[in-house]
Write a structure and sequence with these properties.
Phosphatase 2c, domain 1; 14 helices; elongated
C-alpha cells in the first residue's frame, strides 16, 4: 500500500525534515508527501485529489488554523486520517483536536522516533479501514441493508475505542508532568470511558435484537434451554433458528475472535444464513454449510487476501413431518441422549471460511429418526476451554459430556442452571477465556 500524505505547515523546513526522515519509505514507494503552507491550500488540494490517506497539520498557521482545518475536513467528509503536529500542546488544544476528528497529536519539537511510530500506526489503521470498506462494497445489497445499522454502530465504536485508549495513555503521562491538571484529566477519562461503554452496551442490544426469539422452540419441542455467556459485552458466538413449513432449523456457531471483532463476524453469519435460507431456499444442513462457506469466503475476499476468519458451526434440521433429524457440522459435533446413553456424531473437520483450507468435497448430512433421540445438544468450544478448578486446567469436552450425561434426566431449566453454576464455580476467580454457548433441545 502506498500512503499519500498531505503535509500542512507554514514552516518550509518541516517538509525537508519529513522527506529526510522517511527518505527510504519514499524511495521504496511506500509513502508519498505533498506539501502546502496553509489550511486553505490544504482544502483545495483535498477537493481536487481524493487519493490522500493522511493529513499532517500544524495548529498555528496564518489565515486558517489547524483546528479550523479539522472542522473543514469533517464538513467535507474527506476520507482521510489527520495527525496534529504542534507546539501548542496544552490539554485544551489536544481535546479540541480530538473532538474535531484528529487521530493523534504530536508535540513540537518533534520526537522523530515517536513521529515515525505514530505515522506507521496510522497507516496500518488506514489500511484496515480500506480493506473493510473494500469488503463492504462487494457484499450483496440485501446484506448491506440488513446489516447497515449494526455495522455503522460497531465501526463508530471501534473508532471511539481507539481514540479513548490512546488518549488515556497520553493523559496518564501528562499526570506525572502536570499534577495540577490531574482532576481535569481524570474527569475526561471517566467521561470518555462512559461513552465507549455506552456504545458497547448499545452494540450488545443490537446483537441481542438479531438473535432469534425462543418462541419457535417452545412451540415445537417438549422443552429446551439456551446457555449464552459472552466473554465480553458483545459475543462472537451466535445461535440461529427458523421454522420453514413444519421443519425447524437450529444452528449454533462460534466465529473467529470474540468481543467486537467476533460480534462483527457473527452479524455477517446471521445475515448470510438469512440470505441462504430465505432467498436461496436451502434447507439441507449440508447444503446450507456449503453455501455459507462460499459466501463467507467471497464476502471477506479470502481468495485474494489469504485471511483465516470464519466460523465453526453445527446445524440441525428437525422435520416434524418425516420425524427425522438431519445434522451437518463444521468442526462442531452433535451430542444427543438416546436410551439413557450419550452419543456423538462427529462433524466434518473443516471450518466455514478460511483461505488455508482447500475443500474438494461438500459437507455431510447425517439423518436419524426421532425415535433415536431424547435430547440434542449443540455447543461451541468456550465451555470446555475454560480454565479453572483446583489446578487451573480446562474443563475439557470429556468433562462436559460427563456433566450432560449426569443431568440428562433433569428438567431443561435445571440443566441450564447446573451448567451455568458449574461453570462459574470452575472459573474460581479466573477470567472467562471465550464466549460460551450451549443449546439443549428435548424432542
Amino acid at each position: 500500500m502506498n500512503c499519500k500524505i498531505l503535509l500542512v505547515d507554514d514552516e518550509p523546513y518541516v517538509e525537508d525534515m519529513m522527506k529526510q526522515k522517511f527518505r527510504s519509505a519514499i524511495r521504496e514507494g511506500k509513502i508519498t508527501f505533498e506539501y502546502v503552507s496553509s489550511g486553505f491550500d490544504a482544502i483545495d488540494k483535498l477537493k481536487a485529489d481524493d487519493t490522500f490517506d493522511l493529513v499532517l497539520t500544524d495548529i498555528n498557521m496564518p489565515g486558517m488554523t489547524g483546528l479550523t482545518l479539522l472542522e473543514k475536513i469533517k464538513e467535507h467528509t474527506f476520507f482521510v486520517k489527520t495527525i496534529v503536529i504542534s507546539a501548542y500542546s496544552d490539554l485544551e488544544n489536544i481535546r479540541t483536536a480530538m473532538n474535531r476528528g484528529a487521530f493523534d497529536f504530536i508535540t513540537k519539537p518533534v520526537d522523530l522516533v515517536d513521529l515515525e511510530k505514530t505515522i506507521y500506526k496510522t497507516i496500518e489503521e488506514i489500511k484496515l479501514l480500506k480493506e473493510g470498506h473494500k469488503a463492504a462494497k462487494e457484499l450483496d445489497q440485501a446484506l448491506i441493508d440488513k446489516a447497515k445499522a449494526q455495522q455503522e454502530a460497531l465501526e463508530n465504536l471501534l473508532e471511539k475505542e481507539k481514540i479513548i485508549l490512546e488518549q488515556n495513555e497520553r493523559l496518564e503521562n501528562l499526570v506525572v508532568e502536570r499534577t495540577a491538571q490531574l482532576q481535569q484529566q481524570k474527569s475526561l477519562v471517566e467521561e470518555k470511558n462512559k461513552e465507549i461503554l455506552d456504545s458497547i452496551h448499545y452494540a450488545s442490544h443490537l446483537q441481542q435484537a438479531i438473535l432469534p426469539q425462543p418462541d419457535i422452540l417452545k412451540n415445537h419441542f417438549k422443552d429446551h434451554f439456551i446457555l449464552y455467556r459472552p466473554k465480553d459485552i458483545v459475543s462472537g458466538d451466535f445461535y440461529w433458528m427458523e421454522k420453514i413449513d413444519n421443519t425447524v432449523v437450529v444452528s449454533v456457531a462460534d466465529c473467529t475472535g470474540h468481543g467486537v471483532a467476533g460480534a462483527l463476524m457473527s452479524m455477517l453469519g446471521v445475515s448470510l444464513l438469512n440470505q441462504i435460507v430465505y432467498e436461496q431456499g436451502a434447507t439441507s444442513p449440508a447444503k446450507i454449510l456449503d453455501k455459507l462457506h462460499e459466501a463467507v469466503s467471497k464476502s471477506l475476499q479470502q481468495s485474494q487476501n489469504n485471511s483465516n476468519q470464519g466460523m465453526d458451526i453445527a446445524i440441525c434440521c428437525f422435520n416434524f413431518d418425516t420425524k427425522q433429524v438431519i445434522y451437518a457440522g463444521a468442526n462442531r459435533p452433535l451430542v444427543f441422549v438416546a436410551s439413557k446413553e450419550l452419543k456423538i456424531i462427529a462433524p466434518d473437520k473443516t471450518p466455514i471460511g478460511g483461505s488455508q483450507f482447500e475443500r474438494t468435497n461438500g459437507f455431510t448430512n447425517h439423518v436419524l429418526p426421532f425415535t433415536d433421540f431424547e435430547i440434542a445438544y449443540l455447543f461451541t468450544d468456550g465451555y470446555a476451554d475454560q480454565f479453572g478448578g483446583e489446578h487451573s486446567k480446562k474443563i475439557m469436552t470429556k468433562k462436559l459430556k460427563e456433566i450432560l450425561l449426569e443431568i440428562k434426566n433433569h428438567e431443561m431449566p435445571a440443566q441450564k442452571k447446573f451448567l451455568n453454576d458449574f461453570f462459574t464455580t470452575w472459573m474460581n476467580g479466573n477470567e472467562q477465556v471465550d464466549d460460551v454457548l450451549i443449546a439443549g433441545l428435548k424432542i
